[in-house]
């Protein structure tokens, strides 16, 4: 038995297969990019990937499906995400911070966008308090997460002083994170200036904004690790 190949048949088949592969690639990459965008915790990257997904869908609907309805909705989807990015950029540009706000921002949450930081700051207030003021009390649930900007505080367990916290420290992070009563009393040694973020408002914001929640959790964990390292280091010997 002898097989004969007709001239031009193989190239035509290869062309059809190539066109089919291109169509499948463009048709599916829209959904791949959309799924990846939903996995992003950074809102800017989420929007950028969503725009890329919309562009791929627009190309697919225009060149392969010739579907005007699909073209319309892919265009709307893309434009909505472009507008959202412009809104984010506008909010970042117009965000204003006091020197105290800026210090807190750069030291504790540098990974947040400016507009996200403004939302976080709205959950609290700056306060100045005299010596003896208690920021946490042992056995009681902490009402505020505090950022000590100036001054110093001492940490007491069962009435005995076990350490101090220097300026630029977070206070109450264990109770805020766990919801359990404070394990120590923290009291001002002198006049202090601090930011108090109200616990319920902070948790509500964290439930609404996943990116802010991740930033808060990372900062609380980092501050706790630093505190534990400082407390376990032996005191320096005198010369």
What does this structure look like?
The protein is an alpha+beta fold and 239 residues long. The chain has two domains: 10-94, no CATH class; 99-232, Jelly Rolls. The chain is 57% helix and 17% strand. It is built from eight helices and eight strands, in the order αααααββββββαββαα. It has helices at residues 9-38, 43-65, 68-94, 99-108, 114-121, 173-178, 199-208, 210-232; strands at residues 124-129, 134-136, 144-150, 153-157, 160-165, 169-171, 185-188, 192-198. Strands 1-8-3-6 form a four-stranded antiparallel β-sheet. A hairpin with a 2-residue loop joins strand 4 (153-157) and strand 5 (160-165). The longest helix has 30 residues, at 9-38. It is elongated and about 80 Å long. The model is unreliable at 1-10 and 232-239 (pLDDT under 50).
Q: What is this entry, summarized?
A:
The protein has 239 residues and is an alpha+beta fold. The chain is built from eight helices and eight strands, in the order H-H-H-H-H-E-E-E-E-E-E-H-E-E-H-H. A hairpin with a 2-residue loop joins strand 4 and strand 5.
The proportion of residues forming helix, as a percent range, comes to 55-70%
CATH classification class of the largest domain: Mainly Beta
Strand residue percentage: 15-25%
Total DSSP E strands: 8
Per CATH, what is the topology of the largest domain?
A: Jelly Rolls
Mean pLDDT over the full residue set: 84
In sequence order, what are the helices and strands, one letter per element? HHHHHEEEEEEHEEHH
Uncertain runs with pLDDT below 50, 5 residues or more?
1-10, 232-239
CATH homologous superfamily grouping of the largest domain: Jelly Rolls
Describe the global form: elongated
Helix segment count?
8
The chain-level structural class is alpha+beta
Secondary-structure arrangement, i.e. CATH architecture of the largest domain: Sandwich
In total, the number of domains comes to 2
Q: Taking Cα atoms only, what radius of gyration do you get, to the nearest Å?
A: 28 Å
Main beta sheet strand tally, sense and closure: 4 strands, antiparallel
């Amino acid at each position: 038995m002898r097989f004969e190949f007709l001239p031009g048949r193989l190239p035509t088949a290869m062309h059809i297969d190539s066109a089919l592969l291109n169509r499948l690639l463009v048709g599916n990459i829209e959904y791949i990019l959309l799924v990846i965008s939903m996995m992003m915790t950074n809102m800017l990257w989420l929007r950028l990937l969503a725009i890329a997904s919309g562009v791929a869908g627009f190309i697919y609907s225009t060149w392969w499906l010739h579907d005007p309805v699909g073209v319309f909705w892919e265009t709307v989807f893309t434009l909505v995400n472009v507008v959202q990015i412009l809104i984010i950029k506008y909010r970042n540009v117009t965000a204003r911070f006091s020197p105290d706000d800026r210090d807190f921002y750069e030291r504790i949450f540098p990974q947040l966008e400016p507009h996200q930081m403004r939302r976080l700051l709205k959950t609290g207030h700056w306060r100045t308090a005299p010596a003896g003021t208690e920021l946490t009390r042992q056995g009681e649930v902490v009402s505020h997460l505090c950022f000590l900007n100036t001054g110093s505080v001492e940490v007491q367990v069962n009435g005995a002083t076990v350490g101090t916290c220097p300026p630029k420290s977070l206070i109450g992070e264990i109770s805020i994170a766990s919801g359990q009563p404070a394990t120590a009393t923290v009291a001002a040694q002198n006049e202090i200036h601090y930011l108090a973020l109200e616990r319920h408002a902070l948790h509500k914001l964290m439930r609404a904004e996943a990116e802010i929640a991740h930033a808060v959790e990372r900062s609380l964990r980092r501050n706790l690790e630093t505190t534990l390292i400082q407390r376990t280091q032996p005191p320096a010997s005198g010369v």
